[in-house]
Design goal:
The relative contact order is 0.12. The chain is an alpha+beta fold. The chain has one domain. The protein has five helices and six strands, in the order αββαββααββα.
C-alpha cells in the first residue's frame, strides 16, 4: 500500500502542474492577442554617416501634374549604392509628410537600391508602397518619373531603372504604371518635357 503522505504529495504536485499549465496557456493567448503598433512594424534605419550635400529631388505635384526640381541638404555616404538609397529615402520622406503635394501610403519605404551594371539601377520598394499607392494614370506615372529622375540626377551614369516591389517584379504600381519594363532615363525625361509644355 502507498503511504498517505506520498499520495498527498503526488496530488499536490499534479495540482501545481495543472495550475502552471493553465497560467501558461492564458499568458500565451494574451501575447497572441496583442498586436504590434505600426510604428514598430519595420526596423529603424541606422543614422547615415557622411558629409551634408546639396542634392536635387524631383518632386511630384498632383494638382498641376508636374515634377519640379527641389534642392535639399542631406548627409550622403561615399558608396554609390548607399547614396542612391539615401536619395530615394529623402524623396519618400517628403511624400510621407502630411502636407505633401503627392502623398504615399503609410509605411512606404525603399528596401534597397542595386546598381547592377554601370548604367542600370534596380529600386526595390516595400509592399506597403505599392499596396497603399493611389490608383490613377497621372499619379502613378508621376511617382515612377519622380523616382527615376531623382536617382538619375543624383547618381551619374544611370541611364536605365527597373522597379521591384517586395523583391519581386510586379505588373503595375496600382493598376496603371507599368512596372514590368525597364525605364530609360532619357525617355522618361522626354515624356516629362512633353507633358509639362
Amino acid at each position: 500500500m502507498i503511504p498517505r503522505h506520498l499520495m498527498i504529495g503526488i496530488a499536490a504536485m499534479l495540482i501545481v502542474v495543472l495550475g502552471m499549465s493553465f497560467y501558461a496557456w492564458r499568458m500565451r493567448s494574451r501575447v497572441t492577442q496583442t498586436e504590434t503598433p505600426a510604428e514598430y512594424a519595420h526596423p529603424v534605419a541606422a543614422p547615415v554617416q557622411g558629409p551634408m550635400e546639396q542634392i536635387t529631388l524631383y518632386v511630384a505635384y498632383d494638382d498641376p501634374g508636374v515634377l519640379r526640381a527641389q534642392s535639399a541638404g542631406i548627409p550622403l555616404p561615399a558608396g554609390r549604392q548607399e547614396r542612391a538609397q539615401e536619395l530615394l529615402r529623402a524623396l519618400l520622406a517628403l511624400y510621407l509628410d502630411k502636407s505633401s503635394s503627392h502623398t504615399l501610403g503609410p509605411g512606404s519605404e525603399v528596401r534597397d537600391v542595386y546598381l547592377v551594371d554601370p548604367g542600370l539601377a534596380v529600386i526595390d520598394l516595400n509592399d506597403a508602397f505599392a499596396d497603399g499607392h493611389r490608383s490613377g494614370i497621372l499619379v502613378e506615372e508621376l511617382t515612377v518619373a519622380s523616382l527615376v529622375q531623382t536617382l538619375a540626377a543624383g547618381i551619374p551614369g544611370i541611364n536605365r531603372v527597373k522597379i521591384l516591389v517586395g523583391g519581386r517584379e510586379r505588373e503595375t504600381l496600382a493598376g496603371h504604371a507599368d512596372l514590368s519594363c525597364v525605364y530609360d532615363v532619357s525617355a522618361v525625361g522626354q515624356m516629362l518635357a512633353d507633358v509639362q509644355k
